[in-house]
Write the structure tokens for this entry.
Amino acid sequence: MGSGAWKIEKRDDFRSETFKEENVLENGTLSIIVLGASGDLAKKKTFPALFHLFKQGFLNPNEVHIFGYARTKISDDELRSRIRGYLIQGASSKDLEGVTKFLQLIKYVSGSYDGEEGFRQLDKEIAVHEDSKNSADGSSRRLFYLALPPSVYPSVCGMIKNYCMNNSDHGGWTRIVVEKPFGKDLESAEKLSNQIGELFDESQIYRIDHYLGKELVQNLLVLRFANRFFLPLWNRDNIENVQIVFREDFGTEGRGGYFDEYGIIRDIIQNHLLQVLCLVAMEKPVSLKPEHIRDEKVKVLQSVLPINDDEVVLGQYDGYTDDPTVPDHSNTPTFSTVVLRIHNERWEGVPFILKAGKALNSRKAEIRVQFKDVPGDIFRCKKQGRNEFVIRLQPSEAMYMKLTVKQPGLEMSTVQSELDLSYGQRYQGVAIPEAYERLILDTIKGDQQHFVRRDELKAAWEIFTPLLHRIDNGELNPLPYKPGSRGPEAADALLEKAGYVQTHGYIWIPPTL
Ligand SMILES: NC(=O)C1=CN([C@@H]2O[C@H](COP(=O)(O)OP(=O)(O)OC[C@H]3O[C@@H](n4cnc5c(N)ncnc54)[C@H](OP(=O)(O)O)[C@@H]3O)[C@@H](O)[C@H]2O)C=CC1
Ligand SMILES: O=C1O[C@H](COP(=O)(O)O)[C@@H](O)[C@H](O)[C@H]1O
């Protein structure tokens, strides 16, 4: 079969069997309310994701209405024109028609985050939409997306609970989506969870971590548990170390004020990279039910040992404090490498090296599993490097396996090569959905598999809180690094100390079409 004939299983069919939530009415009006509609996330991610869902027919214009809510006083049309630019990027003329139709579904309500007036008005607008669109037996589904700073989550959730819940006479549901960072440390996260937990059931709360919506992150369980050859290899007997890496080639760019309060560990490592670690390291779940998967993730997190300061490198790029919203003497790290150790039968002794940095020399996110040296190596191929299995999350999704082969030709010598599954080449013409697109669709379907459960969040903060407090107290300070570099040299030294052996003279070159 040629590669063009490859068959992609339709997502809908696959999911309906496995994940269908019981007793959920899926017909009737759907109101999606984006709170913080004037902000950065809303315009760059939330509205574009909603547009893509609309374009693909997942949001039925006869049922759906979208509401923007924020304090900024703007009209419906002003909000629409703010968003438009982000929807038309790369759009065809047919898409442009779609953009106009989509924008007409959006209405804007202005109000504060802690006063009832705005929320009463919002409820009224939603009810008007529901009354005009719903048939007698239709349900009322209300999805509140909090694209807001976490400081206002408690008051906003209180307002939703008091004034904007779906009308129970109509059936349906009310769900809320909250963004990361969920708190700043264990104590503040627990406080936030208690405040929201008093208002909503866990089944109504969707803690979004958009890395869980990335194609190759979603592929991890399939890869690990549907392939016989990984089963016996995926453990301390065969794997020497695992790296999970996030690199960005730009700095904080206008988000310095936000970033300085959080730093790279809270922004990327404690959530995105730790979630990836869970999927790499967890045991096989009983089934694909969200609770079974999340139970296993919690177990891995609870097995992580306290972080040793000798296994941490922090960095801050030169020029970071030039941003007027960043204090001159900030010691917030914009780079960090942290080694985590999992104390269980499968992973004892295997370092999980989490690395994240801004203003580095490239933009890339990947998982790199390095295998142990071959015992009794008759080819003396250590010089060729170790086997590695690399999962590139972005850009250009790919998986490749670095392995040693005979150098083609008359001589018996070895060379490092790779088995390569580059998605752009293998799945030509298949559009890979944006993470936010999938995750918002999951919230509408009531599938919590790819969202962070409360106990998962708690376990994640338990791992990082002591280290974060030491940094906040100035006990650990970042090393300077040049923008556009690999980060502080000490990070490479730590990698080596943790047992990673770099293969010299070999670079994987992604195939071009
Ligand atoms: N931007 C991004 O790329 C990402 C953001 N996130 C998370 O998403 C959430 C929103 O992020 P983002 O859109 O960047 O944030 P913004 O700073 O753009 O804030 C969103 C909106 O919230 C309101 N707002 C801002 N500050 C305050 C405040 N102190 N008190 C009350 N309201 C305020 C403003 O609306 P108005 O004044 O009109 O009411 C603003 O337009 C955050 O939790 C963030 O961590 C997560 C991943 C990526
Ligand atoms: O959550 C965040 O993620 C982005 C990176 O997301 P990606 O999908 O482009 O990898 C990061 O820039 C931002 O600082 C952080 O808050």
About this structure: The domain at 3-179 is CATH 3.40.50.720 (Rossmann fold).
